[in-house]
């Protein structure tokens, strides 16, 4: 799946590909796995996720990345390693690309996401259930691009992250209210969005 995204700010020094990790064991079990305590060492890619990456790499039609940064969760690390090996690159962990922390909902069924998103639609600063606010997620995710813009020129950077953080960042880059992040079409596992 390919999505082109045009953001309002001025021309960037680098090109960015935003990738959601492949289908994971957490997706397969329909669980919320959002904390380092569980996400760093467990809940990697599912067989479906491995197949998605194989198909993606066989039919790659985006610019070839020159750098790959990824959330250090297992599912994103495995995704990044697979893509990096294909392009002969060494992936770099970047903790700011981690999953949004869903607080007290950690380990529960993913049907509980809806409870958080209902609060998100009213208040980007809320921390109901101990979750990380959308404002905080937007700040750390945009911080990754800001850092890369200061450090690099002319690179094609693949950022491998998670669904909610990527949707929140795209909403922020678009200049829309963070309360509208769920109004965006959901990013599918192993999908890539290119920032122009």
From TrEMBL:
Pfam families membership: His_Phos_1 (PF00300)
Gene3D superfamilies assigned: Phosphoglycerate mutase-like
Database matches in CDD domains: HP_PGM_like
Protein origin, superkingdom: Bacteria
SMART domains per the UniProt record, alphabetical: PGAM
PANTHER family per the UniProt record, alphabetical: PHOSPHOGLYCERATE MUTASE FAMILY PROTEIN
Stated name of the protein: Histidine phosphatase family protein
The organism of origin for this protein: Billgrantia sulfidoxydans
Source taxonomy: Bacteria, Pseudomonadati, Pseudomonadota, Gammaproteobacteria, Oceanospirillales
């Amino acid at each position: 799946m390919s999505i082109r995204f045009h953001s309002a700010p001025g021309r960037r020094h680098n090109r960015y590909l935003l990738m959601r990790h492949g289908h994971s064991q957490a997706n397969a079990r329909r669980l919320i796995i959002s904390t380092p305590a569980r996400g760093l060492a467990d809940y990697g890619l599912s067989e479906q996720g491995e197949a998605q990456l194989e198909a993606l790499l066989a039919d790659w039609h985006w610019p070839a990345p020159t750098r790959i940064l990824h959330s250090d969760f297992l599912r994103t690390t495995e995704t990044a390693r697979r893509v990096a090996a294909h392009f002969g690159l060494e992936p770099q962990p970047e903790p700011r690309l981690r999953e949004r922390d869903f607080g007290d909902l950690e380990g529960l069924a993913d049907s509980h996401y809806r409870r958080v998103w209902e609060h998100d639609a009213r208040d980007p600063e809320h921390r109901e259930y101990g979750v990380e606010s959308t404002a905080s997620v937007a700040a750390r995710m945009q911080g990754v691009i800001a850092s890369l813009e200061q450090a690099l020129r002319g690179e094609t950077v693949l950022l491998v992250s998670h669904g909610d953080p990527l949707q929140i960042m795209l909403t922020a880059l678009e200049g829309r209210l963070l309360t509208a992040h769920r109004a965006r079409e959901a990013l599918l596992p192993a999908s890539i969005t290119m920032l122009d």
